[in-house]
Amino acid sequence: MEIFTYKNKKINIIYNNDNESFNTASLLKEKLTEKGYIIPKKYDYDAMINICVGGDGAFLRAVHDYGFPEIPFVGVNTGHLGFFQEISPNNLEEFINALDKQDFTIDSLYLVEALVCTRTSCIELIGVNEIVVKGIQSKTIHLNISINDTYLERFSGDGVIISTPMGSSAYNFSAGGSIVYPTLGVLQLTPLAPINSKVYRSLTTSAIIPINMIVNLSPEYRDENSILIVVDGKQHKYENIVEINLKISDMKLQLLNLGKHNFWSNVRNKFL
What we know:
Oligomer: single chain
Mean pLDDT: 91
Number of helices: 5
């Protein structure tokens, strides 16, 4: 967690096209302008803060669309879950007052990075919540899994989730994975419908991978063209995949923290 200072008063407001998000964004723009803040007409990479109005899906799209910028993000929740979103539409004045006083800190969140290698090239993918490796059309896939060049298992099942600490409360949690505090430097490997029989043996629980280790997934030859990679909900399909290496990215996502809602209260309020 870091104290944040800014050199200008430009703020990007990113919002969904639904009525509630549009109306909230318009009201926020009006209030910020009255306080002397500048709202660019187009996304400005020199802005002090990105404010994303919407739900978690809109938040993730914004981060990807603008290329994981170093500018801190903060969310106004007009969606359903809003795990990333710090601000309620009813508390805009309180947020702006905190902004004026610089009464906030910045959390640095870990990202997951995959290097997907085919027989002809390698492609880099980065996820905020998770990268999922699964079979197309719900096909059972077989993956040889190693961690730091040490063979772990021959996985058979629907696929695996490799989640960040922040993403541990998303798809990973729904699949039976553990919730991990968001600032810890770990990844989580969680199986999706693993097969356990006399023929196939796969881990049935998630595994926590330290920051300095690489997870290697090598599909069997028959599955090289049956792999679907899903990054924060967006699907990617490549032919002739021979291996996928996953690790914690060198990049981080900066998230503005007003200190009003800590992670565990979020877990309680969203899930219990």
